[in-house]
């Protein structure tokens, strides 16, 4: 039996040990100045504390967006912090709630599950915090503005076009390697791609059942391997996820099948450059992900300052984006970043991200 | 974790039982309980207070009602499951499959609801599924005599797999607002989330069963000496079977609560929960081999973990550090009693010139000649 | 074995029982038989199952799990378990990838570092279990999350992509020696080495002794804690090798690599006849168990059964294997009892 004195000593040691652990400086997040909760109201002098909550924090896509957001934060004199779950299947709610408790000015979020976060976001809105969706939208009504990186239908058409371009004579089996099965953005793109494929021009293409790689490189690789095994006549893999397209390109290239199977979708030019050159992925696309983060942060700032409210029809300008032309907020409070870029052998060396 | 009479090599030795005092004379049961309480639970209470102090100093919003409500809600399902798990571990078994049952429950709930059944029908059906799953665990682990570690490892995979088969990759939402209000809201006038009621009731009931009834005594006995307990007959096996059924049922209930709180039912619900549940139980002072532990300790450990996670998050400490902290906490919670016992033995030997009262002998130590 | 024992039992066990017993006693052979049957069944429906490219892929992937399973078998035989292997594999895979992408070390040195890291992580496990006397399930549950947390911290949210690795590094995943995939050769070599250690050395015999009866082992003068420490260290070493192989096979690595692998590794051991009670089982069994599970996974993909069934089937396989083990054990106990009574 532990004597009372020993019990007390050990208790103090444990507390000290835990204090040591808790005081370890954060490794991956930019420290933010969380002072006493100021009322985040629409006043020009209001502090600008913005928290970004991406789908998962291990994803280079969101890190790229974060770099743009950080740049905006520095320019505007606000703070930027990125927190989130380590896996796309974990709930984002605790992070939203903590940000609410901390009394931040605005939350920017890319959701894993558009409905799960609604109560938490509504609670945040009730506390006066501005909510800006980016990349993957929360359910309509739970945000003030949603920054869509690209027009959904635009992407759908592009994906279908690229598949057609890469399949010999626009004929053959194609398949989609997506991210998480519940990801709202990928699902929207795929749905619109399917609609596009119904046009007579694409009659020669057969779309096989979609497989999901969960935005995890290992799972995506396994899925890509399975596709190669199961569909020997496969012509094109369409991967509208930067993690998936890279995994698919790796697999096809390593299997030596770059002549018979092509890979397209959405990817980073730096990742995919060698696969453009070796013929695995002659065409694919994306947009400027840092710009997405930059625009999102700017919109947060404008909402906090009261310059916009998010109502459809409002316009605003952000220098450096959209050729300095004003953005217009569309239906459902959606703002579109801009058109997608197409990357191919001709221009691949011009980009660095 | 059953064959306790031949403990795995390298295991911890058991601190001397509290129902005898230093000279070996038996104590009254009341004193024994108080004596037992004076150890681990006091320590834990200190730690909890220390963490609260830490949290308050790390972030000025820590001590608000809203935050208190959040921090409890964030881990309430884990806490709910930890209570029957504590009983299972006290009885010398373990159930690793709880996290998958949470997923299966959420999955069945989502499936039924999406198919048009109202929640009044879906929820009881889900609870039945939970009980059946627990029954499977129980039958295999007690009747067939298979080690519960491996059985529940198998059902960990099986239940999760079934969850995926039933619901697929979909996330079902659009539940009635009362459902989400239950999961997300607080009891009017207090910062306590509604699901906390389940936790509190369960804690009281199971605490009473474990510490105040003969069932509880049987469980402790079963945990202390599996061999002897087996010979005392079918009763022990039946009790353990019921425990597994209970665990399955509660895990399913926790799955429903989780779906309510997240307003979304998914097949991957609950992934990773088992680690946290086991951590809470062990941190609460329950010995992994069975035979000792209190519900009070588990409750304190629940709060400790909730506070720790919340304090770290509010201080914007990376979640990776949180998982390291939990792992360290888990190990510490087992090391300290062992070290304390060894320390005390050494102290006794030095002060009185004789061995400490005979406890269990670990491998590598010779028994008293 | 006397069938006419004191206890009331049918004189002749049913055919099913006898089959189970024979299968169980020769676990390795029965696994092979089931695999061949399975292969034949699937091939009827989908001939590409038996194609060289498919078989190569299956065996290559299974080799990674097999290597980890061999180490895990050692630990399980001593009546412990190592739940942290998946974090070790992930951490080693990431660290090696990071070192190679930063060109800090050459390929051989980086690989050696990775394996060494696995050894160190295994030794930490061994220390916590054998020296600090923490029960293995608790200790390795803790290190499972600690090592993964360290992995996340190191990664800082980034990933290392294949293009950043030295060219040709990942070709090892498709390389062959005399037509057999390199990975399979590596797995077989490691299996052989550990198998020899277990069968022919004193350490190996002590491993079995400690697992069968720790107290007796101690009385016999075996340094139980040292043996357990050694088992965990070797398990970490094997996990390190598996981690290097994982990195080569998958190319792009982030901090979540190998999440969930522990289930496959332990399942491979259980299916392969390494009883969780300790004291019995072979590394060949563990290796075949890994191959068996890999076959099942591949078969499911080939017959286009939804990937969602995979985990459920893993679970069923584990439960079946354990049930078979238990039947055998009960039979053995009864027969020993009968012999000593009669």
What is the typical, i.e. mean, pLDDT of chain B?
A: 80
**Tally of DSSP β-strands of chain A:** 15
Report the total helices of chain B. Answer: 14
The largest contact between protein chains, plus residue counts on each side, is: B-C, 58 and 65 residues
Strand content of chain A: 15-25%
Give the SSE order of chain B as H and E letters: HHHHHHEHHHHHEHHH
The whole-number mean of residue pLDDT values of chain A reads 82
Broad structural category of chain A? alpha/beta
Helix proportion of chain A: 25-40%
What is the subunit arrangement here?
heterotrimer
Give the termini separation of chain A: 62 Å
Biggest sheet of chain B, open or closed, and with what strands and sense? 2 strands, antiparallel
The unreliable regions of chain A are 1-44
Number of helices of chain A: 10
What labels describe this entry?
heterotrimer, A: 353 residues, alpha/beta, five-stranded parallel sheet, 10 helices, 15 strands, C: mainly alpha, ABC transporter involved in vitamin B12 uptake, BtuC, 4 strands, disordered N terminus
Task: Write a structural description.
The complex is a heterotrimer of chains A (353), B (369) and C (342). Chain A has 353 residues and is α/β, with parallel strands linked by helices. Helices cover 39% and strands 17% of the residues of chain A. Chain A has 10 helices and 15 strands. Chain A has helices spanning 4-22, 60-76, 93-102, 118-126, 152-166, 184-197, 217-230, 242-254, 269-277, 289-305; strands at 49-53, 79-82, 106-109, 130-134, 145-148, 172-178, 205-207, 211-212, 234-239, 262-265, 283-286, 315-316, 327-328, 334-336, 341-344. In chain A, the strands form 4 sheets. In chain A, strands 2-1-3-4-5-14 form a 6-stranded parallel β-sheet, with helices on both faces. In chain A, strands 6, 7, 8, 9 and 10 form a 5-stranded parallel β-sheet that branches. In chain A, helix 2 packs across helix 10, helix 5 packs across helix 6 (184-197) and helix 7 packs across helix 8. The radius of gyration of chain A is 23 Å and the shape is elongated. Chain B has one domain (62-339): Orthogonal Bundle (ABC transporter involved in vitamin B12 uptake, BtuC). Chain B has 14 helices and 2 strands, in the order H-H-H-H-H-H-E-H-H-H-H-H-E-H-H-H. Chain B has helices at residues 29-37, 40-58, 65-90, 98-114, 119-143, 148-167, 177-184, 195-212, 214-224, 226-231, 234-262, 273-283, 295-314, 319-352, and strands at 171-172, 265-266. A two-stranded antiparallel ribbon of chain B has the order 1-2. In chain B, helix 4 runs parallel beside helix 6. Mean pLDDT of chain B is 80; it is low at 1-27 and 358-369. Chain C is mainly α and 342 residues long. Chain C has one domain (48-328): ABC transporter involved in vitamin B12 uptake, BtuC, CATH 1.10.3470. In chain C, a hairpin with a 2-residue loop joins strand 2 and strand 3 (180-181). In chain C, helix 3 packs antiparallel against helix 10, helix 4 (85-101) crosses helix 10 (224-250) and helix 5 (107-131) packs antiparallel against helix 10 (224-250). Chain C is globular and about 65 Å long. Chains in contact: A-B, A-C, B-C. Chains B and C meet through helix 6, helix 12 and helix 14 of B and helix 5, helix 6, helix 9, helix 10 and helix 11 of C.
């Amino acid at each position: 039996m532990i004597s009372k004195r020993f019990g007390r000593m050990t208790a103090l040691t444990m507390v000290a040990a835990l204090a040591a652990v808790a005081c370890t400086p954060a490794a991956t997040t930019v420290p933010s100045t969380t002072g006493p909760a100021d009322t985040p109201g629409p006043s020009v002098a209001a502090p600008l504390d913005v928290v970004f909550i991406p789908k998962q924090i291990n994803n280079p896509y969101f890190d790229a967006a974060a770099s743009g957001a950080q740049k905006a934060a520095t320019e505007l004199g606000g703070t930027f912090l990125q927190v989130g779950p380590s896996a796309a299947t974990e709930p984002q709610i605790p992070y939203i709630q903590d940000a609410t408790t901390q009394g931040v000015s605005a939350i920017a979020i890319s959701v894993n599950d558009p409905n799960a976060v609604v109560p938490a976001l509504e609670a945040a809105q009730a506390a006066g915090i501005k909510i800006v969706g980016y990349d993957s939208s929360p359910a309509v009504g739970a945000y003030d503005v949603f920054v869509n990186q690209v027009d959904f239908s635009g992407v759908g058409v592009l994906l279908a076009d690229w598949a057609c371009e890469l399949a010999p004579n626009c004929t053959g089996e194609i398949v989609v390697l997506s991210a998480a099965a519940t990801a709202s953005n990928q699902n929207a793109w795929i749905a619109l791609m399917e609609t596009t494929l119904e046009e007579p021009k694409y009659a020669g293409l057969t779309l096989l059942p979609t497989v999901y790689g969960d935005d995890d490189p290992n799972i995506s690789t396994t899925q890509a391997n399975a596709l190669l095994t199961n569909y020997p006549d496969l012509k094109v893999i369409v991967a509208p996820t930067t993690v998936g397209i890279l995994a698919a390109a790796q697999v096809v290239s390593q299997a030596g099948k770059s002549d018979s199977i092509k890979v397209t979708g959405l990817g980073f030019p730096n990742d995919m450059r060698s696969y453009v050159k070796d013929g695995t992925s002659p065409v694919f696309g994306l947009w400027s992900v840092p710009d997405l983060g930059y625009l999102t942060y700017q919109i947060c700032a404008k909402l906090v300052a009261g310059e916009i409210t998010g109502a459809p029809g409002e316009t605003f300008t952000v220098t450096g984006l959209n050729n300095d032309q004003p953005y217009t907020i569309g239906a459902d409070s959606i703002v579109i970043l801009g058109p997608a870029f197409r990357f191919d052998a001709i221009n691949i060396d011009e980009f660095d991200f | 974790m059953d064959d306790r009479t031949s403990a795995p090599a390298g295991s911890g030795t058991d601190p001397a039982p509290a129902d005898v005092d230093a000279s070996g004379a038996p104590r009254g049961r009341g004193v024994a309980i108080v004596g037992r309480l004076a150890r681990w639970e006091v320590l834990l209470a200190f730690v909890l207070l220390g963490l609260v102090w830490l949290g308050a100093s790390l972030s000025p919003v820590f001590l608000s009602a809203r935050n208190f409500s959040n921090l409890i809600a964030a881990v309430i399902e884990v806490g709910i499951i930890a209570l029957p798990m504590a009983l299972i571990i006290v009885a010398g078994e373990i159930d690793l499959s709880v996290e998958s049952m949470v997923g299966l429950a959420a999955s069945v709930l989502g499936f039924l609801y999406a198919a048009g059944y109202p929640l009044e029908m879906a929820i009881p059906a889900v609870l039945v599924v939970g009980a059946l799953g627990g029954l499977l665990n129980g039958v295999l682990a007690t009747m067939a005599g298979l080690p519960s570690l491996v059985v529940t490892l198998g059902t960990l995979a099986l239940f999760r797999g079934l969850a995926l088969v039933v619901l697929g990759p979909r996330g079902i939402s659009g539940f009635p607002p009362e459902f989400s209000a239950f999961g997300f809201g607080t009891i009017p006038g207090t910062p306590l989330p509604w699901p906390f009621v389940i936790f509190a009731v369960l804690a009281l009931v199971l605490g009473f069963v474990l510490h105040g009834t003969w069932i509880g005594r049987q469980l402790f006995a079963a945990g202390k000496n599996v061999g002897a307990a087996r010979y005392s007959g079918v009763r022990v096996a039946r009790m353990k079977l019921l425990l597994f059924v209970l665990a399955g049922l509660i895990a399913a209930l926790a799955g429903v609560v989780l779906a309510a709180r997240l307003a979304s039912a998914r097949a991957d619900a609950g992934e990773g929960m088992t680690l946290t549940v086991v951590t809470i139980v062990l941190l609460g002072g329950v010995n992994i081999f069975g035979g000792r532990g209190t519900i009070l300790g588990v409750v304190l450990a629940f709060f400790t973990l909730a506070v720790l996670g919340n304090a770290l998050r509010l201080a914007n400490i990376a979640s990776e550090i949180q998982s390291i902290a939990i792992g360290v906490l888990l190990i510490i919670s087992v090391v300290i009693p062992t070290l304390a016992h060894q320390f005390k033995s050494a102290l006794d030997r030095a002060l009185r010139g004789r061995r400490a009262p005979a406890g269990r002998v670990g491998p590598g130590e010779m028994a008293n000649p | 074995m006397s069938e006419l024992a004191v206890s009331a039992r049918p004189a002749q066990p049913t055919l099913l029982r006898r089959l189970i017993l024979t299968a169980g006693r020769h676990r390795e052979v029965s696994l092979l038989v089931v695999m061949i049957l399975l292969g034949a069944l699937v091939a009827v429906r989908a001939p590409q199952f038996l194609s060289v490219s498919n078989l190569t892929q299956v065996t290559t992937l299974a080799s990674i799990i097999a290597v980890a399973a061999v180490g895990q078998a050692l630990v399980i035989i001593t009546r412990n378990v190592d739940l942290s292997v998946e974090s070790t594999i992930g951490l080693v895979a990431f660290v090696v990838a990071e070192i190679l992408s930063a060109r800090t070390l050459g390929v051989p040195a980086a690989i050696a570092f990775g394996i060494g890291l696995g050894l160190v992580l295994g030794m930490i496990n061994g220390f916590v279990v054998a020296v600090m006397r923490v029960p293995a399930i608790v200790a390795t549950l803790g290190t499972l999350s600690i090592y993964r947390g360290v992995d996340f911290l190191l990664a800082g949210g980034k990933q290392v992509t294949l293009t950043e690795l030295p060219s040709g590094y990942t070709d090892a995943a498709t390389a062959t020696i005399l037509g057999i995939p390199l990975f399979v050769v590596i797995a077989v070599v490691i299996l052989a080495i550990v198998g020899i250690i277990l069968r022919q050395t004193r350490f190996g015999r002590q491993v079995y002794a400690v697992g069968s009866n720790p107290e007796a082992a101690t009385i016999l003068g075996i340094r139980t804690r040292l043996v357990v420490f050694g088992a965990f260290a070797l398990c970490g070493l094997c996990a390190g090798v598996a981690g290097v192989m994982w990195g080569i096979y998958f190319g792009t690595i982030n901090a979540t690599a190998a999440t969930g692998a522990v289930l496959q590794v332990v399942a491979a051991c259980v299916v392969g006849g390494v009883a969780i009670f300790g004291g019995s089982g072979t590394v060949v069994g563990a290796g075949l168990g890994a191959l068996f599970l890999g076959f099942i996974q591949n078969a499911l993909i080939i017959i286009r059964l939804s990937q969602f069934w995979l985990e459920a089937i893993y679970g069923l396989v584990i439960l079946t294997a354990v049930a078979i083990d238990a039947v055998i054990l009960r039979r053995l106990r009864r027969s020993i009892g009968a012999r000593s009574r009669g």
